[in-house]
Prior knowledge:
- The complex is a heterodimer.
- Chain A is α+β, with helices and mostly antiparallel strands.
- Chain A folds into two domains: about 5-60 and about 320-460, Cytochrome Bc1 Complex, Chain D, domain 2 (Orthogonal Bundle); about 70-215 and about 255-320, no CATH class.
- Helix content of chain A is about 25%, strand content about 15%.
- Chain A has twelve helices and 16 strands.
- In chain A, strands 3, 4, 5 and 9 form a four-stranded antiparallel β-sheet that branches.
- The longest helix of chain A is centred in the N-terminal third of the chain and has 15 residues, at about 65-80.
- Chain A is globular.
- Chain B contains 15 helices and no strands.
- In chain B, helix 13 packs antiparallel against helix 15.
- The chains are: A alpha+beta, B mainly alpha.
Amino acid sequence: MKRIPLLYRIFALVATGLVLAPFACTKPDADYHSASEEWLSGGQQTVYDEGSNAYSHVFPVLAENLERVHEVGDAQFGATFVSPPAVLNAGRGPIFNNVSCAACHISDGRGKVPGAGDSSISTLFRISMAGVNAVGGPMPVPGFGDQIQNRANYNTVKEADVLVHYEEKTFSFGDGSSYSLRFPSYQVTNAYTALPADILLSARVATPVFGLGLIAGISEADVLARADENDADGDGISGRPNWVWDVQKKSSTLGRFGWKANQPSLLQQIAAAYNGDMGVTSSIFPVENCVGQPQDDHRADDPELSDSLLYANEFYVRTLAVPARRNLDDPQVQAGKALFNSSGCVKCHIPDQRTAADMAFPAISNQLIHPYTDLLLHDMGPELADGRPDFKATGSEWRTAPLWGIGLTQKVNGHSNFLHDGRARSLLEAVLWHGGEAASAKEKVRAMSAAERASLVKFLESL
Amino acid sequence: MNTRVSTLLLLAAAAFSSCQKDDDKTTDVTALKKDILVNVSTNVITASYTDMNNKATALANAVTALESTTNDANLSAARQAWKDMRVVWEQTEAWLYGPVSSEDIDPRIDTWPVDFNALDAQLAGSAQFTAAYIDALPEDLKGFHPIEYLLWGKDGSKTAAAFTAREKSYLQALTDNLVALSKQVDDAWKTGYSTTFATAGQTGNSTYTSLQSAYLEMVAGMADICEEVANGKMKDPFDAQDTNQEESPFAKNSITDFTNNIQGILKMYQGDYNQSGVGLEDLVRNYNLSLDSDLKAAHAAAIAALNAITVPFGQAITSQQSQVQTAMAKINALHVVLQNQLQPFVQQYAK
């Protein structure tokens, strides 16, 4: 879009919190007004949209030429891939989970989980055998690899389907009222060949993709400084970094992305998703996901995706802005925030992070952001455990999920299913699933009055 | 999907414009603001999806007629029915929020490109085209464009005599699938989302927690389709000089598609879909006549610029480049009015 330079400069001042009053004779809209900078979840890269497109905005502070790169990447993120050969977007499959990035990351947001008895939609299933592979990652399953591709090109056989079943169990709050949680179980069906009986299987819902450039911008030193592997401070919480294989650097690197922090960089995450989820090869992962399997088409067309489009896609994701907080001045929101802090949620869902100085990319440099994560792994207890280790992450550890923007999930994605497999049907259920290191925080929430629980949820909805 | 909220423009514009007096109100604005949401959700958005579902049924019926009596008259009628439904769908793209997006209807209706290898293989194969079978197909084998390809053929010159039995049965299944999907979105609005939208800001509405959020949604939808047409649908094939990226190439319908996208913006603004009603226009005219005329002038200029392209878009990207560039510029200019004038206006007055 066109810019007006003067106003644009004013924006920079406002974003850095220096000036607003001289230009304004009234305050900005009530939803957004607050004396604190807390509403700027993404620092200068915060957008003011609480609508259906809240997750889909380019950084508001970005050079115009880079904005065009973002647009090219946007088209690539939405591009539907088809079976080869084709003149446009060739290279999908032979087996895959979905046809485009946007088909799972709907509106750049959270994927849907299948209903009971449904086959998966924007959820996929990672699988592995016990043990580790040559670089310390999960051991692939012979004949299947490390994920079940449940779709295939014409005349190719898919690997399998996975059906979901839920069992309801009832629990009580401290005040005597009850709540119910649904426990998922999975059944692999239609496998094209026998699956070993002892596979480890883990459901993964597509995660929101906004704000990831800022997450990438947090310095490794800052992440590691919060780690407390042996709980030296005795608070019952032992955040651990995941160390994962960086295929470009060919070395073990801090993991940041994914439900178990098993990807070191956005580029590798995206290239892995192209390869694993869509069957599209790139320079980073040039070998088809079904090599050695009967589905392999043996076409000599790899890599199927050009580096320019791969990098544009990475840039698109890197420059998706974060929606601003809403209703910060609402007393109920403030009460909920106090409860979030006093219950100990805040010990892992760290509100304030500062991105490192980055002279090469000022757009993400030195920003105070509020992702509500420490990017570390925590034991979440046996009920949330998937039993499938991923590099240093054990079968019961998960990366603290960022909470920014989570209150807009219902609006953007039309559902309120949370956690790695979408089992939680509301924000409160998600809280109540926490165990392990979060057990004491969960217990405090369980002991809350109904009014307090409502305040806590109201706070989460303001994120 | 790429949209930019120009934060400061919004804040600064709100700050400047809020200094104006607003003592010349002549209507009950509080009631008007609610009436607009009711009219828009019922008589614009829901009505448009009902209309689309009716047009889908008409298309399916036309295909049934073509299947039973395969002649050029019935082929021509089916093509017209496709175009008629396309008009509605493209207009609704000015309000791509709610169930159509969250229930993933859009990609199943309107995905480009088509997987021609798989489509040819389907036609050569022997699978029964049941509803469940079509449902399980990838997005690039169903919806408008495979139907378009089957009706027109790759160069747009297909005759009724060229249809195979298998093509006809695939066509029938695909059009039935369109009926089901358009019914799904119509039902979702009729049975709940219409109320959700119309009651924005009222107690218990957890989706639209303020009246203003529904107004901002409307404006964002209008602005987004400008962005999508000018900087995506038109710019991508134009910059690449690649006709393969054109959206409705077989029916040569792309410019009509773009025009209807932009027409949807005015329908939303005026609150008039098949009948006259209150819309944003009525609120704007109550406070700011110059914004109203700026918006209408920018809209008319965008439509005129699209109309000035006289050959199919796939040709125009090489033979009418200045017209194409002008059209993109005029649509971008309309986008600026929506983003930098209408949005701040809503930010200030729709509370």
